[in-house]
Amino acid sequence: MITNDIKQKFIDIVGKENYQDSNEIKLVYSYDATPNFQSLPDAVISPRSTEEVSKVLKLCNEHKIPVVPRGSGTNLSAGTCPINGGIVMIFNNMAKILELDEDNLTITVQPGVITQEINTLVESKGLFYPPDPGSMKISTIGGNIMENSGGLRGLKYGVTRDYVIGMEFVLPNGDIVRTGGKLAKDVAGYDLTRLMVGSEGTLGVITEATLKLIPKPEARKTILAVYENLESAAQTVSNIIANKIIPVTLEFMDQSTIRVVEEFAKVGLPTDAEAVLLIEQDGAPEVVERDIQMIEKICKEMNAVRVDVAKNDEEAAKLTTARRYALSALARLRPTTILEDATVPRSEIAKIVRAINEIAKKYNVPISTFGHAGDGNMHPTCTTDVRDHDEMERVEKAFEEIFDAAIKLGGTITGEHGVGVVKSPYLAWKLGESGVNIMKSIKHAFDPNNIMNPGKMFAKDTRKRVVVQ
Amino acid sequence: MITNDIKQKFIDIVGKENYQDSNEIKLVYSYDATPNFQSLPDAVISPRSTEEVSKVLKLCNEHKIPVVPRGSGTNLSAGTCPINGGIVMIFNNMAKILELDEDNLTITVQPGVITQEINTLVESKGLFYPPDPGSMKISTIGGNIMENSGGLRGLKYGVTRDYVIGMEFVLPNGDIVRTGGKLAKDVAGYDLTRLMVGSEGTLGVITEATLKLIPKPEARKTILAVYENLESAAQTVSNIIANKIIPVTLEFMDQSTIRVVEEFAKVGLPTDAEAVLLIEQDGAPEVVERDIQMIEKICKEMNAVRVDVAKNDEEAAKLTTARRYALSALARLRPTTILEDATVPRSEIAKIVRAINEIAKKYNVPISTFGHAGDGNMHPTCTTDVRDHDEMERVEKAFEEIFDAAIKLGGTITGEHGVGVVKSPYLAWKLGESGVNIMKSIKHAFDPNNIMNPGKMFAKDTRKRVVVQ
Question: Where is the FAD-binding PCMH-type domain (chains A, B) (predicted)?
Answer without folding.
Answer: 37-216
